[in-house]
Design a protein that fits this description.
By secondary structure, the chain is an all-alpha fold. Helix 2 (32-55) runs antiparallel to helix 4 (63-85). It has helices spanning 2-26, 32-55, 57-60, 63-85, 92-120. It is built from 5 helices and no strands.
Length: 130
């Protein structure tokens, strides 16, 4: 499961960097919050989770790891969409549906992640040569 997380993180890295370049070139700095969320919740957090699951494959290769992956990665795009929508006039109320729905799914995924870590990360690191 670790490599899958890392590949998803790379996609968010491209999106975050692209948004930053767009903001810089157009001086539309009102998207700074969305840019920061994409880079932190997308690129950095997803990459760290992927590294954890790569180092502790027993945690990633079980039902908790799969639930974590799908809850987090279904919720994340909806949450990111809301970070753009809150900047559009008259979209705030509708944006909150995406905020709470997406962030709710992410939070559920993170709870599963924490449970999974406490259940399956036992201090034995697995190194594979592939």
């Amino acid at each position: 499961m670790g490599p899958r997380w890392i590949k998803v993180a790379a996609i968010y890295f491209i999106i975050g960097i692209s948004l930053g370049i767009f903001m810089s070139s157009t001086l539309q700095l009102n998207w700074a919050s969305a840019h920061a969320h994409i880079n932190l919740a997308g690129w950095v957090s997803v990459a760290i989770m992927g590294l954890i699951y790569s180092v502790y494959p027993a945690a990633g290769n079980n039902s908790l790891g799969r639930w974590h992956f799908w809850l987090y990665n279904i919720g994340l795009p909806f949450f990111f969409l809301s970070t753009f929508m809150v900047q559009i006039p008259d979209m705030l109320a509708f944006a909150h549906v995406f905020t709470f729905g997406g962030a709710g799914a992410m939070a559920a995924g993170l709870i599963v992640f924490v449970v999974n870590i406490f259940k399956n990360v036992n201090g034995r690191i697995v190194f594979k040569d592939n």
